[in-house]
Structure formats: structure tokens, C-alpha cells
């Protein structure tokens, strides 16, 4: 790969040409790359090639805190947006999702090692809390001016020689990573100046100081299936499935993956950091020492009640949000939510997604719905043209096997009028 050295110094066009020469790309491939290049992308990442598109679809009329919101979702998984819409429809049979948020603080960790006198360190931090907070805020003055910024310090002893000085920061409308890292590094410099050994200074992605609680109550009858399974049967099984998630970490991981199908798609479309959201949710799911499902469904009289508490730190400013036009568009589609509203929307998307998955799992199973969508993907994959996709999708679904070879022969037969 010697010919690719200095790749980052090349222009966007040169990078395509170099890569094409190195590994042999078709004209079709290089044209595809050129068509998906953007100056913004080139400024966002190193060795930029092109923008990898993720299909974005709409979750329509998600009922959140008394409003119906349209939510763009970006995902490559065929069934996700269909399922989210299905979940939202069931939720609209009741009053929809209600949320309550706690404080919204981000934690920065200044990790100290080789501590000789823990008591003196703790006293120093307690006595100088105001000064350390001032140092943190001086590193990002605009945040404090707007009423946010570093609010408090939490001393945490890890063992005899190790401790963490945590700063808790209100990042206002931002997700907070940059602000907190800047502030934590400033406090780290001060502690180094006092002779302490600082291993690192970085935010924590376990956002336990930014919790949102979401609840939804749905009339049991709204859960009945077209195949004749009653709402009462379905809700009893959903409640049972929810209980299993507290007992089996293997089931809990899958259920949380389903929740994240929705959450991650909405978070990605909103220009937020999906990895941060994944990290916080999985860490929180294991907070009791056993990994559990993040939602809880119970039956209360004639209603199915869904609840979740999620540590969620999102932003409506910062990162790619003000830069990428598609992200701006997605915020506009949602009605330009505040950060609190966006957090509520994302939690509600998670509940809708989880509900649809559980209802399918305890009734028909998910393959029936998935197969229809997979048949369509397969039709496209084997080269069906727009006017052929519908017919080929039907043929693939009617066939007893869904595989590429069979789909190709069905397309061949379709084209030959057989
Ligand atoms: C598939 O992407 C997601 C599900 O497995 C979630 C779940 O099992 O709850 C259906």
C-alpha cells in the first residue's frame, strides 16, 4: 500500500484516482464515490473518500408529551422504521409517551494515581472546590455566561493510591463532550501544578447524571393482532417477556439491541454520537451487577404500561449538528426540538421500537414481517429495476426459500415472461 502514503494531503479527486489505481476500481465505482463526495465530509474526517449513505425514513406521529412528532430515522436494517411506526400507532391509542427528566449534567473524570496522602488530597479538593470550579469555567467561559458550566465537584477514592476528581458540568444545549474535556484538562493542569500525578482527564460516557424517565400506557385492546390473538393474551406475554429480561442477560442484550434499533437510528439522524449512546445504555443496563433489559412492561387493569429510565446525553448544538445540511433538515422535520425535547423524543422512539418488537415476538414471531422486507432487499440486490421490484418481491415471498440464487432465477423468469 506504499502508493497511498500521504493520502491525507491529496485532493478528494486525487484520492479516488489513487485508490482506483491501487486496487482497481470500475468507472461505475469511482463515479459513485465522486457523486457522494462533499467538502464538508472532507473537513470532517481524515483520508476522506466519500459519504456512505444510510437510508433515512420517517417515523410519523410519535406521541410524546402531548404532541405528535415526526422523527427521521437513519438505519440500514429493513424492518426498523416499519416497526417503530407500528409501535407509535399502538401508542396513539392511548395518551402517548410522557417523560420526566432529572438534572442534565456531564461528568468529567480527572484520574489521579500514586497518591501518598489521600486525606490531604481530599481536604485540598474540598477546600478548593470553588477555585477548581472557577478554573474549569474559565476554560470555557461562554458556557458559564449562559448559565451552564461546571457546577460541582465529587471526590471519589478508588483504592489506597488512586482517586478521581469528578467535575459535574451543565452543557446547556450541547452533548457536552468537548466542553467537559476542555474543563477537565484545565483542572488536571491545576492538580499537576499542585504536585499530583494525573493519569488522564476525560468525560465519562456513563451519563447517570442525565436520566430521562419515559412512561406509556396503552389500552390492552390496541395490542390485538390481525391474526386474531387478543390484546389480553398479547399484553400478558409482553409482561412475561419483560420479566425474562431481568433474569437472562442473553435475552436482555437482544431486547436492548432492539431498543437501540430505534434509539440509534434517531440519534444518528439527529447528528448525535451513537457510540456514546450505546456505551451509556449498556453500562446503565448492567448497573445492578447483572445486565438487564432497559424497559419494563406490566399490565395494570385494562392498560399495558411501559417504562424506561435511560441515561441520555444528546445535543442540539455542537458536533456535526450545525454543519451537516441533512442533520439541520432532520431537526427541522422534528420541529427544531430543544435538547430536552429531543431527549424525550429519542426515549419515546426506543419505547415504540421495543413495544413493536415484543408484540411481534410473542405473537407471529419477527420473521414474517422481516421476510417481506428482506424479499424487497433481495429483489434490489439481484438487480431488479424499479418497475420489477414489486413483482419480484411478491415472487420471492411466495417461494419457499429466500436466497440469492433463487431470486436471480425468479428475475430471469420474470423477464422472460415465464
Ligand atoms: C432485531 O433487530 C431486534 C429484536 O431482536 C429485538 C428483540 O428481540 O426484542 C427483534
Automatic annotation (TrEMBL):
- Supply the Pfam families for this chain: HMG-CoA_red
Signal peptide (UniProt feature, chain positions): none
Q: Which domain of life is it from?
A: Bacteria
Question: Which keywords does the record carry?
Answer: NAD, Oxidoreductase
Which pathway does UniProt place it in?
Metabolic intermediate metabolism; (R)-mevalonate degradation; (S)-3-hydroxy-3-methylglutaryl-CoA from (R)-mevalonate: step 1/1
Q: What is its EC number?
A: 1.1.1.88
Any one Gene Ontology MF annotation carried by this entry is: hydroxymethylglutaryl-CoA reductase (NADPH) activity
Query: Which leading EC class covers this enzyme?
Result: oxidoreductase
- Catalytic reactions of this protein: (R)-mevalonate + 2 NAD(+) + CoA = (3S)-3-hydroxy-3-methylglutaryl-CoA + 2 NADH + 2 H(+)
Concerning SUPFAM superfamilies, the annotation shows: NAD-binding domain of HMG-CoA reductase, Substrate-binding domain of HMG-CoA reductase
BP terms from Gene Ontology: coenzyme A metabolic process
NCBIfam families noted in UniProt: HMG_CoA_R_NAD
Its family remark reads: Belongs to the HMG-CoA reductase family.
Task: Please report the name of this protein according to its UniProt entry.
Answer: 3-hydroxy-3-methylglutaryl coenzyme A reductase
Origin species, per record, is Weissella soli
